[in-house]
Amino acid sequence: CNISVVLPTGAKMPALGYGTWQSRDNSLETALHEALQAGYRHIDTAAIYQNEEVVGKVLKEWLDSGRLRREDLFITTKLSPFAMYPDKVEESLKESLEKLQLSYVDLYLIHFPITIVTDEAGEHYGHSDMDYVDIWKKMEDQYYSGKAKAIGISNFSVKKINRLLKNCRVKPANNQIEVHVYMQQPELIDLCTKNGITVVAYSPLGSRGYNTFLEGSGHQPKKVRDILTDEVMLEIAKKHSKTPAQIALRFLVQLGLAPIPKSTTPSRVKENIDIFNFSLDEKDMNKIRALNVGPQCRVCEFEVFTKLSEHPEFEF
Length: 316
Ligand code: A2P
Fold this sequence. Notes:
Elements: E1 4-6, E2 12-14, E3 18-19, H1 25-38, E4 42-44, H2 52-64, E5 74-79, H3 89-100, E6 107-110, E7 116-118, E8 124-126, H4 132-145, E9 151-154, H5 158-166, E10 174-178, H6 186-194, E11 198-202, H7 210-216, H8 231-240, H9 244-254, E12 258-259, H10 266-273, H11 282-289
Parallel strand pairs: 3-4, 4-5, 5-6, 6-9, 9-10, 10-11, 11-12
Antiparallel strand pairs: 1-2, 7-8
Pfam families: Aldo_ket_red
Family: Belongs to the aldo/keto reductase family.
InterPro entries: AKR, Aldo/ket_reductase_CS, NAD(P)_OxRdtase_dom_sf, NADP_OxRdtase_dom
């Protein structure tokens, strides 16, 4: 991966990252070895994914054997929305670092702008008194302590970013949001860029596995448009002798974003990082820009958090 996104701290984040949402256990362990072998150095995990231990185990093997140095890696993890209380931030990062077997992370994110609470019936609500600005103050402390080399946010809207920017000592270095061909989020990205906030694109392939995940959590699958069979994507893929997935990822990289595709299939792990030996021309870029539909193509609508959308601050 020879393109980086430079954080306001000066640190370089490899533009193509390895996403681990919905990946666990042995399949993640095997795939992460594949990913490191294939050249991935930017790994994205989160407390809520319950896979930090597996990530930590694999990283330790690579670091102990001398195949990698810590400074070669860019590791991101995130504060769980269930632990989003000012007095839990320090402890949560400490727990993540223990699981990852690291002394610092390169980027620590507020995973979600709302604190999620679970009632006795198992319903998820947004905590009415908890304010992400108060959480951010504790995130800043983690930055000052050196345990997080940079701090950022995820799933923050324009309104929330503007409010946070007015109330911070350290500006967020990154916002991690859903971005793909069908939901390109130009306004949100523009605001981030103007304020020096780098953007990581999650679900960059349109999260094709999300329905399996929804079904597993007892939810109805949803109809999603498939980026990888889109005629325009197929045509551009043919022109460059690449796959539509590679075109979708290269498009995001050329927009200056850092996509983090998830795959536990070894051939796709390799395919997804093999995007640095060609480039899309302006015509290709414009054709893909024209595929943007907007928020109705959002894949991750957080259905699993039952009553969360009733929270007054719930908006994207
Ligand atoms: P798998 O893990 O079996 O490879 P996203 O990153 O947008 O959430 O997409 C992840 C989903 O897309 C997963 O279901 C993953 O399946 C699948 N996927 C990842 N890379 C590719 C690819 N290159 N071609 C087709 N499907 C892919």
